[in-house]
Amino acid sequence: MTVDDGMDLDNPLLENSADFAAVPDAFQRLWTPHRMVYIQDGQQPHPDDCPFCLAPAMDDEKALIVARGTYAYVLLNLFPYNSGHLLVCPYRHVATYDEASPEEVAEIGSLTQTAMRVLTQVSNCDGFNIGMNQGRIAGAGIAEHLHQHIVPRWALDSNFFPIIAGTKAIPKLLGETRREIADAWPNDEG
């Protein structure tokens, strides 16, 4: 009832690429239809339901917040690409970088620098992917609230698991990671 790639042949919602006319390529694909809610027109959360607007009102531990500044804050990504994947968000509900105030831009930059130092200290990472997806078409999961990704990278963090199994292994729990980063965050910043 399953094939070697782990697909359940009895599930009518699963598709097998061998069923379609195509020329195979070297890419594995991770189909994530549950993410459609983030990219369909009209499916962005209402500002009253925006997770980046709600998080600052919550307890830091529950919201996964590691540091707070005056204009922006830092929290763990609930769906990380790597352990320690952080987001820097302005408190104000703005969608794009050009809508952010000079104070917000400066603090997002400062918090990003501190996050890089802290992640290097606590995780011994070898590098970072840092970026912002601006708008739904650019891949922003929550397009209506600006957020910058800081993804720590290691020399050997890419292995067979995501490629063969379509799964990313995260070695630490979010709560443990949040605690380590928050504890290492300098008291005079954020």
From TrEMBL:
SUPFAM superfamilies: HIT-like. It comes from the Bacteria. InterPro entries: AP-4-A_phosphorylase, FHIT, HIT-like, HIT-like_sf. One of its GO terms (molecular function) is catalytic activity. It holds the Pfam family HIT. Transmembrane segments: none annotated. Signal peptide: none annotated. This is HIT domain-containing protein.
